[in-house]
């Protein structure tokens, strides 16, 4: 029986593509379709889609400028706060210095008075100086620095400074025998510790 040659694929011949014998080209519907052209305006300029990147860049630039403005305002506010805090702190220090100085004005007044009457009654100068001393001690106590000069108490390294160790049979070992210089204040508000001599341990 005679065989007739297979008719070549008409689609392949239409495209000018040589198809091997026995092969079949896929239907036209399986071929990838080209993407549609980008829309253009009537005047031939790029359409609205082409302006997308430029518009996004403008938005980023605007956002960065706003952040920079906020950053500068925050720095300015911080600097103003620091300056205001420094002024308030200096004002508080001035008030505290004034209050401390005012507490000692009566002490100076009484010293001036005692010196004025020293020639008339030399014996009265001792009582005057003692009164002035008590007034100064009271002023320090009002400022938060009480005086302590007790003897016979146990040695406390936080309140006492040992300047000597003595042998005293009447004093228990490790107790304060004599206060050479009183201390003022206590704990974190201590002006100075008391200088003392302590009984020697056996």
Key phrases:
elongated, 11% strand, alpha+beta, disordered N terminus, 202 residues, two-stranded antiparallel sheet
Q: If you had to describe this structure to a student in words, what would you say it looks like?
A:
By secondary structure, the protein is α+β, with helices and mostly antiparallel strands. It is built from 4 helices and 5 strands. Strands 2-5-3 form a 3-stranded mixed β-sheet, with no helix packed on it. Helix 3 runs antiparallel to helix 4. It is elongated and about 100 Å long.
How far apart the termini lie comes to 141 Å
Strands of the largest sheet, in order across it?
2-5-3
The DSSP helix count reads 4
Cα radius of gyration in angstroms: 51 Å
Largest sheet: 3 strands, mixed
What coarse outline follows from CA principal-axis ratios?
elongated
Spell out the helices and strands N to C.
HHHHEEEEE
Strand residue content: 5-15%
Identify the quaternary structure here.
Answer: single chain
Extract low-pLDDT stretches.
Answer: 1-17
Helical content class: 40-55%
Summarize, please.
The chain is of the alpha+beta class and 202 residues long. Helix content is 44%, strand content 11%.
Can you lay out the helices and strands and say which pair or pack?
Blueprint: H1 10-15, H2 52-103, H3 105-116, H4 124-142, E1 147-148, E2 160-166, E3 176-181, E4 183-184, E5 194-199
């Amino acid at each position: 029986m005679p065989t007739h040659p297979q008719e070549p694929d008409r689609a392949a011949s239409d495209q000018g593509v040589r198809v091997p014998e026995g092969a079949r080209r896929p239907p036209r519907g399986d071929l990838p379709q080209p993407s549609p052209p980008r829309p253009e305006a009537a005047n031939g300029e790029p359409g609205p889609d082409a302006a997308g990147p430029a518009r996004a860049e403008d938005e980023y630039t605007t956002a960065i400028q706003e952040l920079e403005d906020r950053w500068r305002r925050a720095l300015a506010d911080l600097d103003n706060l620091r300056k205001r805090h420094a002024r308030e702190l200096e004002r508080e220090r001035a008030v505290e210095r004034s209050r401390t100085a005012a507490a000692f004005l009566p002490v100076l007044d009484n010293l001036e008075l005692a010196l004025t009457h020293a020639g008339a009654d030399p014996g009265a100068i001792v009582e005057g100086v003692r009164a002035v001393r008590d007034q100064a001690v009271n002023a320090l106590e009002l400022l938060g620095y009480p005086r302590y000069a007790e003897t016979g108490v146990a040695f406390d390294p936080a309140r006492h400074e040992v300047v000597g160790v003595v042998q005293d049979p009447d004093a228990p070992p490790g107790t304060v025998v004599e206060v050479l210089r009183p201390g003022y204040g206590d704990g974190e508000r201590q002006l100075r510790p008391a200088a003392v001599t302590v009984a020697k341990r056996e």
